[in-house]
Amino acid sequence: MRIDIVTLFREGFDGLEAGLVGRSLERGDAGLHFLDPRSFTTDPHRSVDDQPYGGGGGMVLRVEPWAAAVAAARAQGPGPVLLLTPQGRPLDQRDLVRWSAETHLVLVCGRYEGFDERIRGLCDEQVSVGDFVLTGGEPAACCLVDGLVRLLPGTLGNASCPENDSFSSGLGGLLEHPHYTRPPEWKGQTVPEVLRSGDHAGVERWRRAQALDRTRARRPDRLAEASLDEADYAYLQAQTPPLGRGLWLAPSRWEPGLVHQLLGLQAAFGVERVFVSPDAQGPEELSRLLSGHPDLEVERVASRRKERVKETFSARDFVAVTDSGPVQGWLGPEGRWARCGAAGGSASGPVRTRRSLASAPRWVLASGQGIPEAVPRVAPVRGGRAGGAALSELWHLGLQLDRLIGEG
Fold it and tell me: Does the global pTM surpass 0.85?
């Protein structure tokens, strides 16, 4: 692979000459070539930047020398041109795998206040290594080159190592499990017994469980995109405290008799918790009305800002009732729907739906306005009227539950 780097500071890449990446470069598995935009200037001062139009601090990189340098790099062969910028898409392991199949890559590193906006149009992709700003693109390019070269054949002694890295497809996008070596005990910290047992299947189960636990604890956002099987979901469910059966409500006001309706749903369907949107009349009032029923918990949820959604639902299993039947999963950070799948297996139909819901230890029934979009809602019962008045939201919920769980 040939990597052409457009930069004003060649010395910013000296650190790549060390270690496995340096040896790979020496063998010729990858070759680094540098183009200095100053070499493409035409003025006596070799100027590559100028003051910004409209005023402001700092200097802006001029488009002409950078365009000439990028064109010279492109002429070395087909391949994508990547602009290192904090405004780019976050760098991902999948990007490195994709680019490792290329024979030619061009990296463009900026400096000073920023680029003339027209320089962005010269590049195929814009890449960021994090939500922070560096003095230049060289450190970011070093990260990219290091991660890319280690994926090339021959760089690592064991070709299977990258397959089980954090974020890799081999781990389904999870974080990697812990590693241990000798001594078996150090300052009271011992190597897990399963790793010394010789039970290879047990080791694999332990490693998978550790990967799931680490990802949920450190990067729960990765669970939303991870490739998990039923055993993974079963493990995560077993490790999380039960949420119970709950109603997520956001009525504009507490209607007369609503508390009695709520207690009726509790008696009929085992409701244990009520989540109340702050857009509705406050949960304090409902708590007061339910003061004689301490077994029915009321909790405020900041549904619009999603501040409490993370704390309430992050990596907790539940079954949510929707107009098309129950779906099983959990909400990740900021209320993101992490998994959708039929509750109770792949079987479908009303009988299966009733059984799965009736036996489900956890579910949430959502109705009303102000509920996070990630929470599936129950469709209103069309045409439902009682005594000339529209049925309340809670009666809609009760009818829907009766359809799914009830007899007949």
Answer: no
Question: How does residue 382 score in pLDDT terms, banded at 50, 70 and 90?
Answer: very low
Catalytic residue among 113, 272, 285, 297: 113
Q: Is-catalytic flag, 150?
A: yes
Closest residue by Cα to residue 246 from 284, 315, 295 = 295
Of 168, 125, 132, the residue nearest 150 (C-alpha): 168
Q: Is 86 a catalytic residue?
A: yes
Which one of 111, 150, 216, 354 is the catalytic residue?
150
Q: Which of 36, 102, 165, 297 is catalytic?
A: 165
The string of pLDDT tens digits covering residues 325-344 is 333 333 333 333 333 333 33
Share of the chain above pLDDT 70, in %: 57
pLDDT of residue 232: 83
Which is nearest to 338 in space by CA: 221, 247, 198?
221
Catalytic status, residue 38 = no
What's the chain's average pLDDT?
Answer: 74
- pLDDT tens digits, one per residue of 97-149: 999 999 999 999 988 878 999 999 999 999 999 999 999 999 999 999 999 99
Q: Of residues 80, 86, 178, 220, which has the active-site annotation?
A: 86
**Nearest-5° angle of CA 393, CA 396, CA 399?**
155
336 flagged as catalytic: no
Average pLDDT over residues 215-239: 76
Q: Which of 51, 70, 72 is nearest to 60 (CA)?
A: 51
